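User: Continuing from earlier, I have the next pair ready.

Assistant: Great, send them over.

User: Here they are, in order.

Assistant: Folding the first of the pair now:
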Amino acid sequence: MRHKRKAGCMLAMVPFLMATVSLAASGAEGEHDPSVMKREHDGSVTKKEFLKHHEWMFDQQDKNKNGSLEVEEMKGFHKMVNKMHERFEQQFP
């Protein structure tokens, strides 16, 4: 009996946890994850959004925050780009 109650309680928590994660991922209204380019209704990406996204990528790899990417930082940048391209290819084969 105790096991069933515990399982029931855990199942009841799932929708709450999913909603919490969803709200945390969406952030404040009007904000979005800079690691993902925001698309227009037709699937296109504006120049402003494209540049914002790539600036975020640069900032992620500029580990020493000196405003330039050294060889090792560029290697990390290329790995990041390859992963993003793979993800894009899976979404839009």
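And the other member of the pair:
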Amino acid sequence: MEVGHPAGLLIFEMKTIEVWNNFNDELYFFILKKVKDKNVANDIFQNTFLKIHTNVSKLKDEKKVRSWIYQIARNETVNYLNNQLRYINEIKTDTANALTDFSNICCFDKLIDELPKMYKDVIEMAFVKGIKQKDIAEKLGISLENVKVRVGRGKELLKTKFRECCNYQLDSNNKLTGDPDCAACSSK
């Protein structure tokens, strides 16, 4: 849209609604094709249009609208994917450390196997396999809150079992400490 300028010059001014009307479907499907997840695509799409809305007044050339909005969408997609990759790497690092920490604890596998199935499943998925709690909820068909409760209760059961079986104690940071001294460990 061209508008008059006080000096008599015509300048180009586009509004967010025009960008939306002309590009929303194709831009959404462009993002969806990149991420292959509707929820993620919706988030990126919303962030993209927020940036378009915030910066549309800076766009001065109508011929560059398409490339400009696609560049914003590409940047938002890359930002999302980079954040996911960083998060996945942090989880892998944490999981690797957790597995290393637990590998030296006696009876670890035995005590997990003895947990009631509802706690065993979430503990194995969260701490042995490193699956996010949100994904565990989806896999098991239960709420995220339910997964969190089961993880908490499962951890408490494990702490109790470690104290009873292996004479481990909880330190000031609520972590298990001590030397294994149980019949199960001695028989290994």
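Worth noting for the second one:
The helical segments are 16-35, 38-55, 65-103, 108-114, 117-128, 133-140, 144-166, 183-186. DSSP finds eight helices and four strands in the chain.
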